[in-house]
Amino acid sequence: MVINTNISAQSSANLLAQSSAMLSQSLARLSSGSKIVSPADDSAGLAVSMKLNAQMARIDGATNNIGNATSFNQTQDGYLQKVSDALSRMSELSVLSQDVTKSASDKALYNQEFQTLGSYINDVATKDFNGVSLFNGTTLNVTTDSDAHTFAMNGVNLGTATFTTATGDSIDTTAHATKALTDIKAAINQLASDRAAIGANIESLSYYGDQLGTLKNNLSAANSRITDVDVAQESTQYAKYNILVQSGTAMLAQANILPQSSLKLLQ
User: Fold this and answer.
1) What is the CATH number of domain 56-227?
2) Residues with Cβ < 8 Å from 176, sequence gap 6 or more?
């Protein structure tokens, strides 16, 4: 039995320190909701989690790009619906102007409306979306995933000869009205093709958006398994370490009392 070196107390103190450290770590996990409070907790898991978080951030960016591209296409189609109405009316006016019972003044009135509608279509051709031309026919590449792969979005060009020829016609005479009707029918056919292309763009972008949403959910689930604390399991560990700290504190007090028994040998 020795006095200067209390091995029991030293062992109890070491065990108490370990239990206190584990208790603090468990408390930090429960309060933060994360299993990885510091890199030392799971260095490999932290590295994987960082990469997953970065990929999910890029997916958010791609999702925003797809949403904006979809809005771009929807804006295009909104304008083209009105262009379709204008062309339909112009084709009707072309037929009305070929009525043999109409006088030259009647045809002049038809032609006035015809020219106004043509000017409207020419004006639509100049519209833009946030500074990007809607109808210059440029194919736009939309990012569709976290690796910046792109989807080629078909453009629409209202400045082609098919449209400008139709809008530049007149129906002030029967001969002019006959030619205008042919040109407008060609423009209507082209417009139908353009609107079908826009519909295909919107459909494809919708698939890409759904794909990104599913991918992000899966990545979030994987990241959760790495970083999120299991509260039920960690609560059990917290209770365990709390008991160990309390019992360790009590045993350390007992270990410090043991050397006092050596005093009885001096009596």
Assistant:
1) 1.20.1330.10
2) 97, 169, 170
